[in-house]
Write a structure and sequence with these properties.
single chain, alpha+beta, Ubiquitin-like (UB roll), five-stranded mixed sheet, 3 helices, 21% helix, 26% strand, elongated
Length: 109
Amino acid sequence: MENSELFKIEVAYARDDVQVILPVEVEEGATVQQAVERSGVLERFPEIDLAVNKVGIFGRLVKLDETLRARDRVEIYRPLIADPKEVRKQRAAEGKQMKKGGGEVDKED
């Protein structure tokens, strides 16, 4: 590793109550998993399980063995709380209309 060039990337994770973007320096050829481990995010957020949580680079799903490039942002995704398709089906069944932006339309009497 003596001749390996270091470059900067970021590791991002968010919960309802906190969001972090951690700067990390990695060697050329480093993988997503190595960057996540080096960032310290696993110690800071013990609920993260790389066997369960999906990861991506700038919103594109990738595998843990994906090779990183300079200035990449590795994102660790939380599982969905509710299936968006099921939520839409339930709203449709209840007859609720949605306004742009996802909020319910206010009914005027």
